[in-house]
Design a protein that fits this description.
10 strands; 177 residues; 3 helices; alpha/beta; 3-stranded mixed beta sheet; single chain
Length: 177
């Protein structure tokens, strides 16, 4: 059987353990999520709307410059420094990059190219072909005669191109006596 002295020792050890455990929580509290907010997804919103959303959450918006981005309209947020759905302390700054729209490209010179090759060159430059018209010409059938917008014009990527191609020479008229 355990004596009275042993019970006192066990009781003192349990009390010391409980006191140590309580002291640890008092001196080293667990991190709390109080004062933390979730960063919203801002891509595609206007700069003013993004700043208002951040302000409403207790976050600060910072200028991150501009970026040519064909996927976001000019003047809207193209990127943000803190990813959406990230939890950050209230008062944190989120940098915002504003889209300047699609990059500017120069219309490549595709005059005299056959239609298939000219279309591939234009589309590789980010300029889709919208329409193809034809007219009679001394050039071979299918040769590109002109573009609209004109060759070497600076345009935004994504601008639709209109091509004029050759139908070949006029058939010669034959007269019978």
């Amino acid at each position: 059987m355990i004596g009275r002295r042993a019970w006192v020792v066990v009781g003192v050890m349990v009390a010391a353990g409980v006191a140590g455990y309580a002291a640890t929580f008092a001196l080293y509290p667990a991190p709390r999520s109080i004062g933390r907010v979730t960063v919203p997804a801002l891509r595609g919103t206007t700069r003013e709307d993004a700043l208002a959303q951040l302000d409403a959450l207790g976050l600060r918006g910072r200028d991150g410059g501009t970026l040519a981005d064909p996927l976001t309209p000019r003047g809207t947020i193209a990127w943000q420094s803190t990813p959406p759905e990230t939890r950050v302390p209230a008062g944190s700054a989120v940098r915002l990059g504003v889209s300047s729209g699609a990059p500017v490209v120069e219309v490549p010179n595709v005059i005299d190219f056959d239609l298939a090759l000219g279309r591939r060159v234009l589309e590789a430059a980010g300029l889709p072909v919208a329409t193809v018209d034809s007219l009679r010409s001394s050039e071979p059938v299918g040769a590109i005669l002109g573009t609209r917008p004109a060759v070497r014009t600076a345009v935004r990527a994504g601008t639709e191109m209109h091509l004029t191609v050759s139908r070949g020479p006029s058939p010669m008229s034959t007269r019978r006596p």
